[in-house]
């Protein structure tokens, strides 16, 4: 009995000893100061890594550079390449995930949804990264000593006091002094520094309903010119009897929404070219803002004409038809105070009473 | 945030016996012991426990508290693009030229005007409405050949600026009435200044793409940020403003960012001083807390400085490393901007 037991263990353990294990026993990964062999082996592994980053151009062989001429090579070709070699067309319709012909990703230039860009590294973005973020972080720092516990806050939605049997299963009550739940402001730290999210340019042209649609066309062209984005038109939602505007009938407004590079270039032009040239302008009112970090201000028609894109081509616009517009700057700040801190750091002046 | 209430609070905190641990500073301690009315009743009992004196004398280390100034000039111009970024942006521009709708010429140029003639001549030359992507026809049969060959300069920003300026000059000369004189459009200022070429480290016009920091040299030859001990009843902000005025003069328009320090430096003396028997304290060294400042205009001036300084320099991050000792740099390096 005992002999058979041991032989069974032996039979089980023998193949284990000879089997190739996933962890090689001979090479010890731990390196000590004393064993020289493994420390010598390390640089040999590192040699396979590229010594320079991929951001630097590697010089090519000079003769290969000289002989490379794609145009003459294609012209010298006797027979044309098959179309599939140079012309890929993304399928026009989505035929489901099981169809063999799938459209490429929207980031692929051959996709129908591809939008090229970015084309530059905007200056506003660089200023924001290099100067503004660190200053905002310093300004918004709140020191909490070790051992500090913030006082407990009341719940944002109040419960009913159960004084009446009808309170059962009611939804919670809103905050005191108004039904609006404000955004929660978290303390600002390195990963929630306020930044620009988007800019909306909106222009309400009342003459478009009174006269003819040319007012709206000119307004759209002007807004497109200053924003580098396609505009949308909107019909009136409200009735204004004195301007003879009926809801749902008259297209009266154009709007452009800017994000990313377009937004930053527009912001740069606004702050550095247009705003310094506005006559007798005190700045953006301190009371402006929707109390959740978005600031709006207006530009008169003569101020819109100061944008370089309109100024260079001023004669092509009917002079009285250049529209005024409202510009809303949406930031990721949760309160107007933080948004104003960001915008004034980026160069927008504020005046008057500041309302948070 | 009025100073009156602050002062009253400070006096109150001095009079009140200390109950917190010694590593918490005075103002923080004030924050901790400020209580609601509800918890005021429990306060008296905790005080009576903690005021018992320890049985053996403990030597308290004492440091000189100093205020330092991290005065910086932010980057003035955009940074140079990497070769990869240049190539990428250029590629995207040519791609956009292929994918965008054609340029609506009739909106911008009235037929028969000099500007229209000028436009026709230019479009014949460069085959594309964009002025900075080189000679490239996005609608031709060979539009696929949109990649640059080795050694071509079209993706360089200097070349693109030159092309834009030449284009503007051609337009001005073609549409002006006076054909006898050629107009010159001013080029942008160079990105490398005279101070860069001369490596004038006292100039604020140097290294326009980088953040520069003010360093001063003491009579003994050590390079440091300006600093001085905080006087009695002086806040850190007031002390650092005074330090800057004493060290580098008042001929600077500066702005201090906030009231909190952005970094600190601890210096321990090689030999500790004698233990003061009366207070059982021992002087160990000095601690410097740096407040961040920005210079808007002006220049440092050491002629009437009150801190025995002999020289100053405006240095970028890597240059600071060569001037200050490694121990000092290990403390300050994380408060210096990358760019």
From TrEMBL, chain A:
Residues 189-245 form the Large ribosomal subunit protein uL5 N-terminal domain. The keyword Ribonucleoprotein applies. GO terms for biological process: translation. GO terms for molecular function: structural constituent of ribosome. Residues 1-118, 150-178 are annotated as: Disordered. The keyword Membrane does not apply. InterPro entries: Ribosomal_uL5 (IPR002132), Ribosomal_uL5_C (IPR031309), Ribosomal_uL5_dom_sf (IPR022803), Ribosomal_uL5_N (IPR031310). Residues 252-350 form the Large ribosomal subunit protein uL5 C-terminal domain. Belongs to the universal ribosomal protein uL5 family. This is Large ribosomal subunit protein uL5m. It comes from Aspergillus avenaceus.
UniProtKB/TrEMBL annotation, chain B:
Transmembrane segments: none annotated. Residues 63-196 form the Large ribosomal subunit protein mL46 N-terminal domain. The keyword Mitochondrion applies. The keyword Ribonucleoprotein applies. It comes from the Eukaryota. GO terms for molecular function: structural constituent of ribosome. Belongs to the mitochondrion-specific ribosomal protein mL46 family. Its main location: mitochondrion. Pfam families: MRP-L46. InterPro entries: NUDIX_hydrolase-like_dom_sf, Ribosomal_mL46, Ribosomal_mL46_N, Ribosomal_mL46_NUDIX. It is found in: Mitochondrion. It comes from Aspergillus avenaceus. One of its GO terms (cellular component) is mitochondrial inner membrane. Keywords: Mitochondrion, Ribonucleoprotein, Ribosomal protein, Transit peptide. This is Large ribosomal subunit protein mL46.
């Amino acid at each position: 009995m005992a002999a058979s037991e041991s032989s069974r263990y032996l039979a089980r353990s023998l193949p284990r000893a000879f089997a190739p294990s996933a962890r090689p026993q001979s090479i010890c990964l731990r390196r000590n100061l004393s064993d020289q062999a493994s420390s010598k082996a390390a640089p040999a592994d590192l040699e396979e890594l590229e010594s320079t980053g991929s951001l630097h151009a590697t010089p090519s062989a000079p003769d290969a550079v000289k002989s490379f001429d794609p145009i003459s090579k294609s012209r010298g070709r006797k027979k044309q390449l098959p179309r599939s070699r140079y012309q890929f067309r993304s399928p026009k319709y989505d035929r489901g995930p099981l169809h063999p012909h799938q459209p490429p990703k929207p980031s692929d230039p051959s996709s129908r949804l591809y939008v090229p860009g970015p084309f530059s590294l905007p200056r506003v973005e660089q200023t924001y990264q290099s100067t503004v973020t660190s200053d905002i972080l310093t300004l918004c720092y709140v020191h909490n000593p070790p051992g500090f516990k913030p006082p407990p806050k009341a719940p944002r939605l109040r419960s009913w006091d159960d004084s009446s049997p009808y309170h059962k299963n009611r939804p919670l009550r809103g905050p005191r002094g108004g039904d609006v739940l404000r955004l929660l402001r978290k303390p600002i730290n390195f990963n929630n520094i306020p930044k620009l999210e988007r800019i909306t340019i909106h222009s309400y042209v009342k003459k478009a309903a009174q006269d003819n649609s040319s007012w709206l066309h000119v307004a759209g062209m002007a807004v497109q010119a200053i924003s580098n984005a396609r505009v949308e038109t909107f019909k009136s939602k409200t009735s204004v009897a004195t301007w003879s505007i009926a809801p749902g009938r008259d297209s009266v407004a154009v709007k452009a929404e800017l994000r990313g590079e377009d937004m930053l270039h527009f912001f740069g032009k606004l702050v550095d070219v247009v705003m310094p040239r506005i006559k007798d302008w005190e700045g953006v009112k301190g009371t402006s803002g929707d109390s959740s970090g978005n600031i709006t201000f207006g530009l008169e028609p003569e101020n819109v004409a100061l944008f370089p894109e309109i100024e260079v081509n001023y004669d092509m616009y009917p002079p009285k038809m250049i529209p005024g517009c409202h510009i809303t700057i949406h930031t990721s700040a949760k309160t107007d105070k933080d948004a104003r801190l960001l915008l004034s750091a980026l160069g927008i002046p504020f005046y008057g009473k500041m309302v948070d | 945030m009025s100073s009156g209430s602050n002062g009253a609070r400070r006096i109150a905190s001095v009079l009140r016996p200390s109950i917190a641990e010694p590593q918490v500073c005075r103002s923080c301690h004030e924050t901790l012991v400020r209580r609601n009315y509800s918890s005021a009743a429990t306060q008296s009992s905790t005080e009576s426990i903690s005021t018992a004196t320890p049985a053996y004398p403990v030597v308290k280390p004492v440091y000189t508290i100093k205020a330092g100034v991290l005065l910086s000039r932010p980057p003035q111009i955009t940074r140079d693009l990497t070769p990869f970024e240049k190539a990428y942006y250029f590629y995207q521009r040519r791609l956009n030229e292929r994918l965008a709708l054609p340029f609506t010429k009739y909106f911008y140029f009235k037929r028969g005007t000099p500007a229209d003639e000028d436009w026709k001549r230019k479009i014949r030359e460069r085959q594309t409405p964009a002025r900075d992507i080189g000679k490239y026809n996005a609608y031709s049969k060979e539009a696929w050949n949109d990649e640059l060959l080795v050694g071509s300069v079209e993706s360089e920003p200097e070349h693109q600026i030159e092309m834009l300026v030449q284009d503007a000059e051609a337009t001005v000369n073609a549409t002006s009435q006076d054909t006898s004189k050629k107009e010159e459009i001013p080029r942008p200022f160079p990105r490398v200044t005279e101070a860069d070429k001369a490596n004038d480290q006292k100039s604020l016009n140097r290294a326009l793409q980088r953040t520069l920091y003010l360093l001063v040299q003491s009579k003994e030859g050590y390079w440091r940020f300006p600093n001085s001990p905080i006087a009695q009843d002086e806040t850190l902000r007031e002390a650092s403003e005074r330090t800057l005025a004493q060290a580098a003069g008042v001929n600077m328009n500066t702005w201090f960012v906030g009231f909190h320090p952005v970094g600190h430096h601890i210096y321990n003396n090689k030999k500790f001083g004698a233990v003061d028997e009366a207070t059982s304290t021992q002087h160990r060294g000095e601690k410097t807390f740096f407040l961040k400042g920005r210079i808007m205009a002006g220049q440092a001036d050491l002629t009437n400085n009150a801190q025995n300084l002999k020289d100053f320099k405006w240095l970028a991050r890597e240059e600071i490393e060569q001037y200050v000792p490694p121990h000092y740099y290990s403390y300050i390096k994380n408060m210096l901007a990358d760019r």
